[in-house]
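User: Can you recover a sequence for this backbone? Please restate the input before giving your answer.

Assistant: Of course. Working from this structure:
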C-alpha cells in the first residue's frame, strides 16, 4: 500500500476523533455554564457566546503563525502539536471550577487547534493529482462524520452522567488521535525555499474576477456567522421549547447535528448541479433557501418544527459552502491559491466569532427567537454582496 494511503487512513481516524470531540460539548455548553453560578439571562448568554466564539478568535489570530512554522518543520509536528494541545485543554475544561477558567481554556484550545487543516495539507502534498479528489473526500467524511455523532453522543452522555464527562471523552479521543498520528503517519518533509519577489506579491495580483472572489470570501464569513449564531443559545432555546422537561442535552445534540446530516446527504448532488447550471445560480438559490428557513424559526413553537427547519439549514449550507470554494478555485492561479484560501479560512473563523457574539447580545436583550431574525438579516446582506459583485464583474467586462 502506498505511503500516502496509510497516512490517509491514520488521519481519517484523527479527523473523526477531532470532529467528534470538538462538537461533543458545544450543544450543551450553556447548560454547563449554568452549573457554575446563578447567572441572570443576559449574563448567561454573554458567557455562552464568549465561551463558544473565543476558540475561533484565537484560531483566526494564531493560524498564520502555525502555517509559517509548518513550512519550516513539516505537517506532522503540527498535527502532534494540535492533538496534544487539545488533549490537555479538553481534559482540563472538564475540571473547570468557574466560567472564566472554562473561557480561558477554550481560548488556549483555539490557539493549539488546527489538526484537520494540517491533515488536509499533509495529504495534499503527497497524493497523486489524479487521486486528490478521492483523498480529500475521504478525509472530509472523517471530520464531518465525527461532527455528526459528536453532539448526539455528547448530549446522551451529559444527560446521564453530567456535563463534565464529555470533556474527558474529548480529551481521550484526542489522546487516541495523538497515538495514531505518532505511530501511523510518516512524512518525508523538505522545507520550502523562500522566493525572491513572489512571496511579497499580493495574493490577489493574478486573480480573475476579483470582485466575485472577494464576495466569496465575505460570503464564507457571513455563512459561518449565520449558521453558528444559534450554537450558544440552542440548548437554552430547546429547554424553553421543552418547558424544562425531558433530556434537554440529548435533544439539543440531535438538533445541533441535523444540519450536518443534511449537508452530508445533499452536498455531492448540489455540487453536480452547480457544474451543470453554474455556481451563481446555486449560490443565489442557497441564499434564498437559507433566508426562507431562518425566518420561520422566529415563530417556531415545537421541537419537531425546529428540527425540520434546522435540516433545511444544512441543505442551504450544502449549496453555499462548496460553491464559494469552487468559485475561488476557478478564479485563482495555482501560485496564489493557498494564500487566497488562508484568507477565506480567517474570514470563516471571524464569522464563527461574530455570529455567536451577536446572537448572545440579541438573546440577552430581547429573546432567543430574535436570534433567527438577526440571522435572516445576515443572509439578506450576503445576498446583496453576491449580487453586487456579479453586477460589478459584468460592468467591467
Amino acid at each position: 500500500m502506498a505511503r500516502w494511503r496509510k497516512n490517509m487512513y491514520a488521519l481519517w481516524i484523527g479527523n473523526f476523533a477531532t470532529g467528534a470531540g470538538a462538537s461533543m460539548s458545544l450543544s450543551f455548553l450553556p447548560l454547563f455554564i449554568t452549573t457554575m453560578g446563578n447567572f441572570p439571562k443576559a449574563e448567561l448568554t454573554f458567557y455562552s457566546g464568549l465561551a463558544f466564539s473565543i476558540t475561533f478568535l484565537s484560531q483566526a489570530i494564531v493560524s498564520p503563525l502555525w502555517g509559517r512554522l509548518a513550512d519550516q518543520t513539516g505537517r506532522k509536528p503540527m498535527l502532534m502539536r494540535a492533538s496534544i494541545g487539545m488533549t490537555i485543554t479538553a481534559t482540563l475544561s472538564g475540571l473547570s471550577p468557574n466560567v472564566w477558567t472554562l473561557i480561558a481554556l477554550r481560548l488556549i484550545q483555539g490557539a493549539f487547534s488546527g489538526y484537520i487543516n494540517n491533515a488536509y495539507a499533509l495529504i495534499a502534498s503527497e497524493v497523486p493529482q489524479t487521486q486528490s479528489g478521492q483523498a480529500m473526500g475521504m478525509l472530509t467524511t472523517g471530520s464531518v462524520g465525527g461532527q455528526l455523532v459528536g453532539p448526539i453522543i455528547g448530549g446522551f452522555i451529559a444527560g446521564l452522567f453530567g456535563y463534565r464527562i464529555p470533556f474527558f471523552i474529548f480529551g481521550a479521543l484526542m489522546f487516541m488521535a495523538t497515538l495514531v498520528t505518532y505511530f501511523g503517519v510518516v512524512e518525508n518533509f523538505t522545507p520550502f525555499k523562500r522566493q525572491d519577489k513572489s512571496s511579497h506579491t499580493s495574493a490577489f495580483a493574478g486573480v480573475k474576477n476579483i470582485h466575485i472572489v472577494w464576495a466569496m470570501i465575505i460570503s464564507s464569513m457571513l455563512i459561518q456567522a449565520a449558521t453558528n449564531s444559534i450554537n450558544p443559545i440552542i440548548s437554552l432555546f430547546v429547554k424553553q421549547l421543552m418547558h424544562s422537561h425531558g433530556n434537554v442535552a440529548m435533544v439539543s445534540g440531535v438538533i445541533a447535528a441535523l444540519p450536518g446530516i443534511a449537508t452530508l446527504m445533499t452536498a455531492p448532488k448540489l455540487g453536480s448541479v452547480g457544474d451543470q447550471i453554474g455556481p451563481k445560480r446555486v449560490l443565489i438559490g442557497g441564499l434564498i433557501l437559507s433566508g426562507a428557513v431562518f425566518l420561520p424559526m422566529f415563530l417556531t413553537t415545537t421541537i419537531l418544527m425546529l428540527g425540520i427547519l434546522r435540516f433545511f439549514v444544512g441543505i442551504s449550507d450544502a449549496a453555499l459552502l462548496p460553491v464559494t470554494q469552487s468559485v475561488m478555485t476557478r478564479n485563482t492561479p495555482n501560485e496564489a491559491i493557498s494564500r487566497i484560501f488562508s484568507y477565506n479560512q480567517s474570514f470563516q473563523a471571524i464569522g464563527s466569532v461574530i455570529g455567536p457574539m451577536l446572537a448572545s447580545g440579541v438573546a440577552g436583550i430581547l429573546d432567543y427567537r430574535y436570534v433567527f431574525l438577526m440571522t435572516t438579516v445576515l443572509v439578506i446582506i450576503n445576498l446583496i454582496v453576491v449580487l453586487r459583485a456579479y453586477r460589478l464583474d459584468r460592468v467591467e467586462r
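That completes the design. The longest helix spans residues 41-73.
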